[in-house]
Design brief:
Elements (H helix, E strand, L loop, with lengths): L1 E8 L5 H10 L4 E4 L6 H6 L1 H18 L15 H26 L3 E2 L3 E6 L4 E5 L3 E9 L3 E3 L12 E2 L13 E5 L3 H12 L3 E5 L11 H13 L3 E3 L4 E7 L2 E6 L4 E3 L2 E4 L3 E3 L4 E3 L5 E2 L2 E2 L12 E3 L10 H19 L16 E3 L4 E6 L2 H7 L3 E7 L4 H6 L5 E7 L4 E8 L2 H13 L4 H4 L10 H9 L10
Parallel strand pairs: 1-2, 1-6, 2-3, 4-17, 6-20, 8-15, 9-10, 9-15, 10-11
Antiparallel strand pairs: 4-5, 5-6, 7-16, 12-13, 13-14, 18-19, 21-22, 22-25, 23-24, 24-25
Helix pairs in contact: 1-7, 3-4, 3-5
Amino acid sequence: MRNFKVAVIGGGPGGYVTGIRLSQYGIDCAVFEKERLGGVCLNWGCIPTKSLVKVADFYGELSHAKELGISVENFSVDYFKVWERKNEVVEKLVSGIEFMFKKRKIPNIKEAVTKITKLEKGYQITTDQEVYTADYLILGTGSKPKELPFMKFDGDKVLSSRDILKMNELPEKLVVVGGGVIGCEFASIYNQLGVKVEIVEFLPKLVSTEDEEISKRLAMALKRSGIKIHLKTGVEGCEIIEGKPVLKLSNGKELAADKVLVSVGRVPVLDVEFDGLELGTERGFITVDENMKTNIPNIYAIGDVTGKMMLAHTASKQGLQVADLIYNELNDDKKEVVVLNYNHIPGCTFTHPEIGSVGLNEAKAKEQLEEYHVGKFPFTANGKALGLGNTFGFVKAISDKNHKLVGLHIIGPQATELIAQGGILVGTEAKVDDIKKVIFAHPTLSEAVMEAIEDLENLAVHKM
């Protein structure tokens, strides 16, 4: 029976990063992952979709090449090659992580954990093949797409976000059920590649967690691109008629397509029996304190399975936090442990246009703050955006009564890169006077961030 100081259950962006950090600290650990390291993010989520986003954006730019003085005739997309490239990108990243594990001699146990049992000291881990023991456990088992009871995933006509990445040819028409981040990203990708796309969303707006103005501007952009959007509309049934799925909508209409992507949220995955232990959960998610500790001693949980901002970078940061905590328990020299402030974690939506956001949106600022200020700056007044030929969107900054930046929201060119500045400024609780000391290079898109912050005091130089 093999013993480890720490056993990490799940090798996603939380688990594998934690395993590497523990190894860097010289702490004996193993990562249990029944599929491949990288989890959903690297294998079936963030990375493969970003490969598709690149192709979709490039194909979209070719459609407007004449506006830039370039003549491109008879261009087309070979989606099977696009699909193969996506797989190559995934393989390169995942095999790179697997090589890092081998180089660092971190055990990557490709077995499914089925049961965890409390011992006099530590825990017994039973897999579908062997039995192991560990003093500490870190649960990072992730999440999976949520199904609708009347529309189960079949991998052919009714697809999950994982299923659609297996699709190696373009459908003529795609209906996306759910207008959240994942649904809108796929809708945008396939629309740019020439697929007829419709979105059905039960709520009154797309990407409902975003600032109201951002959501409205995204809907405007998607409609302009040819995507038909049904808001305040539910799906009440689905039938396969003559080989095609037909949805029955709450407004009494029917909607036919070649493929249906169901993207209505994610649910936690925890297919582990806790023998003689009662793990605290709420709505299926593992409950943890601010240090990611569960109610059971020496058992931590990180990532999607906790339900806290279900993002890959959140999981990674939670895992690093836990690694520091375990290090401090095992060593006399202590590391500073940073407790995560979830308001400071940026979110990215890779639609066309992109969205990046961090901190309070205006609705939350109005709800939580006794006084707040809003500054905005459009990309139409930014020189770099004009040169790129991509001026759709704006930057929105929100500060409190003490002029501290509490939110930054961007829709437009390279918003997912620009939001890193917001992550730093909001995360360090910078005040407007502090930000004035920063010199933003010219000509760059980041100047729009600067001018939105200046607009908090009505001092944006280039705002009409």
